[in-house]
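Troubleshooting: if your tokenizer reports a length mismatch, compare your output against this known-good record of 115 residues.
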Amino acid sequence: MADDPWADFKPQTAPKAAADPWADFNPQAKKEVPWSEVPLEAVKNIPSSAWEFGKNVAQPVIHPWETAKSLGELGGGVLQHLGLMSGEEHKPAADAVGKFLNQEHDSNRSGWSSR
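Known-good structure output:
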């Protein structure tokens, strides 16, 4: 019994990476940008930001039933959290919106203010 039949199923240790491959995608990582480059970077972002804005504005108009359903789930979740409606099925929608708003609020604290 020199060969271990379970060798393929034993945990393997992965080699440690020299650098963080996700560093470019980490929102907490701050990149130093000279002020002279800020206007150019802002102008570069205008087309993609305008496209995303247009998509977000058009979404409720193009899909009114989905919008109504989502708003109903959100409202139901809020009512369930307040104890004004029984059940638990809509709470995840309200929790997701609350988490999103909390993350947006926290991101504004650490960086530029939206005011």
